[in-house]
Amino acid sequence: MTRRIGHRVGVFLAVFIAAAAFMCVAASAQERVALVVGNAKYLNANVLPNPGNDARAMARTLREIGFDVAEGFDLDRNGMERLVREFLRKTATARVALLFYAGHGLQVDGRNYLVPVDARLESPSDLNFETIELDKILENLNDASRANIIILDACRDNPLARTFAARLGASRSGAVSSGLAGYSNLGTGTLIAFSTAPGAVALDGKGANSPFTRALARHMRTPGLEVRQMLTRVRADVAAETQSRQIPWDNSSLLGEVYLAGLGRPEQQRVDAPPVAPQPAAEEVLWGAIKDSGLSAMFQEFLKKYPDSPHAGEARARADELKKSEVAMLPPAAGAQIDTLKQSTEPTNGPIASFTRHNGGWTVVFSFAEPTTGISWRLGETGNFRETGFIDTLDPRTRKRLPNPAIQLDADQAATTIYVRYVDAGGNQAGPFPIRFDPDGALEREQRKILEMTAGSWLSFREFNGLLLYYTHLMSYRCAIRQVRIGLDSAVPDRAIALPPCNQKDPMAIPSDAQPYLKVPPATRSVSVEITYRDGSVSELKTFRR
Questions:
Q1: What share of the chain is helix, strand, coil (3-state, %, to 5)?
Q2: Would you say the pTM of this structure is higher than 0.70?
Q3: Can you tell me the distance from the alpha carbon of 92 to that of 100, in angstroms, rounded to the nearest whole number?
Q4: What do you get for the CA distance between the two ends of the chain, in Å?
Q5: Per the structure, how many domains does the chain have?
Q6: What CATH number corresponds to the domain at position 145?
Q7: Cβ contact 495:273 at 8 Å
Q8: Residue 9 lies in domain
Q9: Tell me: the pLDDT tens digits for 163-216?
Q10: What is the per-residue DSSP string for 237-270?
């Protein structure tokens, strides 16, 4: 009898712990429902290699994180409609509803349709009887009391769309477009994610899963990762794997934060922020932020603000030194001086570059002021130039394939100069143009931009054995942050939040021993927050309310 009771207690505790892990969005699997569909074996189109594997991987992942999953593979029209009806009935009592679809899809007149394996599209009326209209599913999910998440790995190259467009005739063939259509308006409480940008075509990849699903399954399992932050990481991984030929896209009208894999494992004890350290003079703060900068403008601004500073001499020397190398927008001229270059009246068509950090390293995307038919590059002052290759898209200006505008750099790439050449539409080579790569500065600028664009996600309240204040988002982009200060029920942020050091090798990863939350008094109604960025500037004061 003792052993039986002990066994029951163990089972009860296991069930209790598993349920508690997902209290951020639901108390049971029935409140988190998912439908997963993978269509690959089409009767009237090419067989797709990955949707079956992609759907199985997602169904497995969703079950692991606590969803009640219904799944279907290679479904005909009746089978898809039956599963969708059952799914919509389940969502009536759910707090989170998730639909994942892998297979063929098409857009007609800006509306999206999911394609069963037996679809035959020979006339406009066939759309209503041969496909499943996504917009109708979205209409049925429109409920602000529930988080609705739609994930579509369905933007593949689709011969059904081409055939259907041909049958519509010249007057209406333009109504059928590649890929899927984006949404400017969504029902309240809905997020929709596409495997690539609206109107673009996604890749199946070389492995058992598509690049999008592989990244999705990897990041979806991460506790404490809000769904929009998760999709940002997925986007970075896919862009890196496909050399920016595929960029996932999403749109959201969610009213709150959704943590698909739960919030992690909060402890019950109170966690106090460390006491606020005495603040150095503003002059010293700014100098500490810019002294390692690679931009002359930083030192010029410092000299304007503090011309009598003890650091003025060093700032002036650094500004003069950097001015000599900051000619990335101008063609190099042997022996030319900065003043001479400023006076030049020749057009300057040098490229500019944007830098994005992801798990695999850096993606550098070049932009040009005129059409290009070829791009090459090298690192440093010596060595051979390498071609970037081409993407499977025609440039309407040159009627030739677009050169790939992106290159990849290793995660540990040191600061260097990238030299870029290009061939213009007339076949003339221009360059090389120097572009300075500063990994520390690039990471700081990128993460600050993300923080400013996602200010509504900095903090969130959650109840779990008390009231918790989560700052997972700030911790993920801490490489742009010098200090975070908060104020409980006050417009004056008077407490500092401790963040782990920036890890350049994996900057968005949260260390396993880090705690991305504070336990705050249960009566707390609002929190003000202010960020001091690494360059010394301070964010706008934000207030978050329960």
A1: 30, 25, 45
A2: no
A3: 18
A4: 48
A5: 3
A6: 3.40.50.1460
A7: yes
A8: 2-252
A9: 555 554 433 333 445 567 666 566 778 999 998 876 566 666 667 888 999 999
A10: HHHHHTTTS---EEEE--SS---TT------SS-
